[in-house]
Amino acid sequence: MNKYKKLILGIIFDAVGYASFIIPGVGEFSDIVWAPISGWLMTKLYKGKPGKIAGIITFVEEALPGLDVIPTFTLMWLYTYVFNKKKDIIEI
């Protein structure tokens, strides 16, 4: 998958995580559903050990109240394509 498609999907997934703030009370319940889904999506977007670690971090971030403001998908994209100095990133 193209890295810019991953960025767009990541921004959309982060926006879904933010949506729990729109409806007070119901939002925290939606995090129970969204947390495992977001963790799974992260592992599908980013393969290997970094994807698994990011999936766990995303799951925990979505599951804990008040941490929804952290854009984990966007941060993972930045880590993978901007801050990671490896030139041999394999696209799958």
Brief summary of the model shown:
The chain has 92 residues and is mainly alpha-helical. It has 4 helices and no strands.
Structural category: mainly alpha
Largest sheet: none
Count of structural domains: 1
Return the string of H and E elements: HHHH
Q: Give unreliable regions as ranges.
A: none
Through-space gap between termini = 6 Å
Please tally the helical runs, counting DSSP H or I stretches of 4 or more residues: 4
User: How big is the Rg?
Assistant: 13 Å
Estimate the strand proportion: under 5%
Give the rounded overall mean pLDDT: 86
Transmembrane segments: 7-26, 63-83
Keywords: Membrane, Transmembrane, Transmembrane helix
Fold and architecture overview:
The protein is mainly α. 70% of the residues lie in helices and 0% in strands. It contains four helices and no strands. The radius of gyration is 13 Å and the shape is elongated.
List the helices and strands and how they pair.
Blueprint: H1 3-18, H2 26-45, H3 48-63, H4 72-83
Question: What tags apply to this protein structure?
Answer:
elongated; transmembrane; mainly alpha; 0% strand; 92 residues; membrane
